[in-house]
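Table S2 (continued). Query chain:
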Amino acid sequence: MAKDNRNRVSIRRVAVRFLSMHNPKGLEFPCVAIAGLGLLGRHGKTIEECVRLTYAGVTRATHEALLTYSSESALVQRLIA
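Corresponding output:
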């Protein structure tokens, strides 16, 4: 870039990272978003495995966690209860 614009995010920094919940050990982020909780468990995984995956993802957040779902499922019902 020829012009120095301090309002732009540097392309050298990672602003958003898309990761799997399967291997989050040791990683931490200020904000974690997990979308599609209503879809977890529909591909042969048990509810217990889905709860463990969700817990692993949520506990990576140091300040905020955002969980979304568009359809009720056994996992969503268990997490809301």
